[in-house]
Design brief:
The complex is a heterodimer of chains A (184) and B (273).
Chain A: H1 9-19, H2 23-43, H3 49-67, H4 75-92, H5 109-122, H6 125-135, H7 139-153, H8 157-178
Chain B: H1 13-21, H2 26-38, H3 40-58, H4 64-72, H5 78-95, H6 100-112, H7 122-160, E1 163-168, H8 173-176, E2 182-184, E3 191-197, E4 205-212, E5 215-223, E6 226-228, E7 231-239, E8 246-255, E9 261-272
Parallel strand pairs in B: 1-3, 2-9
Antiparallel strand pairs in B: 3-7, 4-5, 4-8, 6-7, 8-9
Helix pairs in contact in B: 1-3, 2-3, 3-5
The chains are: A mainly alpha (184), B alpha+beta (273).
């Protein structure tokens, strides 16, 4: 995607200052907002969600100095409003049709399987047990298993779901690293 | 002044599924997205819903329409294709394990051994099947009770017995060279408390694996760092029976919030006769 807005150091500093007085915290918020914008552009079926998210951030950053004093509310919602404009512009450009997806199994699965086993062995016993038991089984057995897990851990079903999901995400990251990031 | 409308209430999981499949009406989609921008937990729920959709797709539990939407809308991004790929391999791994149902089935079969399935003798059969089980349970209970009493006695002896403390600094046996940390073989039934000095406290919890000649002796987790005389240390206990003469290595790992262990340091020591 063509970048129409250039982000200067001054604008970037103003943006971080608007997000939080503490620079480290501001950096975290910046990254959160970027990830959420990517998620939204992805959900809208855009081809270049990262580029669109960066374009949104650049535009907001260039205005951050002037809007930060008067703006009331969560800055993330301002990003969202700008993201809507960027999305409209994207649609007006008539993006190329999505290439057909390939969801077939590849030849790398044996290697991936070994990587997964290796990554699972790096988890603590508790995390390994949780992620396996949470995602194992089907239908009723799965429901019962999850109830039992939540009760044993003393947490609610939603907290369990999010905990399992985070472990799964860390496993995926580990497997991809193990595979030398030669995925897809 | 710019003001954005706020969102109230919880969006159901079904709405998140429809959002991800691209079938949620525009108004609801806007509400979901505004909440995604501001609510961390809601973001986590969305990611968990993505995983659920992927698992349902891979196990062919989606309806035809959902499946079409999944392939035409959900799976177009590279990131999601990577998730699908991982989901497939993870599912294959899970399928290779016995399920809870299979384990339960095996347990039931074992319990039924010796049972009578004839209807005429159903009552007698049920009891005749259970009598050996009851007798066996009684024997097991008696044995377990005796064993528990023995363990309590042993535990008390240990607590009352000697406590040997060794404090270690990071470094393998080789790297420590002449300054190898040594421990005289502790007396039987004593407890050895190992204290590891940390260079920094980067994790909330830690895991220590004790190895003897590359063979895992014990794992202590989760451990928390504590201050002791101005030093950050991790304490854990090992039964003296596990420490025969030889070289030992404590592998220290930090446990991240996601539960992943990350290697930090190695601590070596030698047990001398």
């Amino acid at each position: 995607m063509k970048k129409n807005w250039v982000l200067s150091q001054e604008s970037f500093d103003a943006l971080l200052e608007w997000l939080a007085p503490d620079r480290e915290l501001a950096g975290q918020k910046y990254e959160e907002i970027r990830q959420r914008l990517i998620r939204i552009f992805t959900a809208r079926g855009c081809h270049e969600p990262e580029d669109l998210a960066d374009e949104t951030i650049n535009r907001v950053a260039n205005k951050a100095g002037s809007i930060s004093e008067d703006y009331v509310g969560d800055p993330a919602l301002y990003f969202y409003a700008v993201a809507n404009n960027i999305h409209l512009e994207y649609l007006r450009r008539k993006p190329a049709p999505t290439p057909p997806i390939k969801l077939d199994e590849s030849n790398d699965t044996e290697e991936e399987f070994r990587c997964l086993e290796q990554c699972l062995s790096h988890l603590t016993m508790e995390s390994r047990d949780l992620v396996v038991r949470y995602y194992q089984d089907e239908k009723k057995a799965k429901i019962n298993q999850r109830k039992l897990l939540a009760r044993n851990l003393g947490i609610g079903p939603n907290a369990l779901r999010i905990r399992a999901c985070r472990i799964r995400a860390s496993l995926q990251k580990c497997v991809e690293k193990c595979m030398g990031q030669h995925f897809v | 002044m710019l003001k954005m409308k706020s969102l109230n209430g919880n969006r159901s999981n079904e709405d998140l599924r429809r959002y991800l499949l691209g079938t949620l009406p525009k108004l609801l989609q806007d509400q979901v997205e505004q909440r995604l921008m501001t609510d961390s937990v809601f973001n986590d729920e969305l990611v968990a819903t993505e995983d659920d959709l992927i698992d349902q797709y891979l196990s062919q539990q989606l309806s035809d329409q959902e499946r079409r939407q999944f392939e035409a809308h959900f799976a177009i991004s590279e990131e999601r294709q990577r998730k699908i790929r991982f989901g497939r391999i993870f599912r294959r791994y899970l399928d290779s394990l016995p399920t809870a149902d299979q384990e339960e089935h095996q347990r039931t079969n074992r319990a039924r051994l010796g049972g009578n399935s004839s209807d005429r003798f159903a009552v007698f059969g049920a009891w005749s099947g259970r009598i050996p089980v009851l007798v066996a349970s009684l024997v097991i209970a008696l044995f377990a009770g005796t064993l528990a009493a023995w363990f309590v006695y042993q535990r008390q002896s240990r607590v009352e017995g000697q406590l040997v403390v060794i404090t270690l600094v990071p470094g393998s046996l080789r790297s420590l060279g002449a300054t190898t940390q040594r421990l005289k073989q502790p007396p039987p039934n004593s407890t050895v408390q190992i204290q590891l000095k940390l260079t920094a406290n980067e994790y909330r919890t830690y895991q220590v694996e004790l190895f003897n000649e590359n063979k895992l002796v014990s794992t202590s987790t989760p451990l928390q760092a504590q201050n002791s005389e101005g030093y950050l240390i991790l304490k854990f206990a090992v039964d003296s029976d596990l420490l025969s003469v030889g070289d030992y290595q404590c592998k220290l790992s930090g446990i991240s919030d996601s539960g992943q262990t990350e290697f930090k340091d190695s601590y070596g020591f030698r047990v001398n006769p």
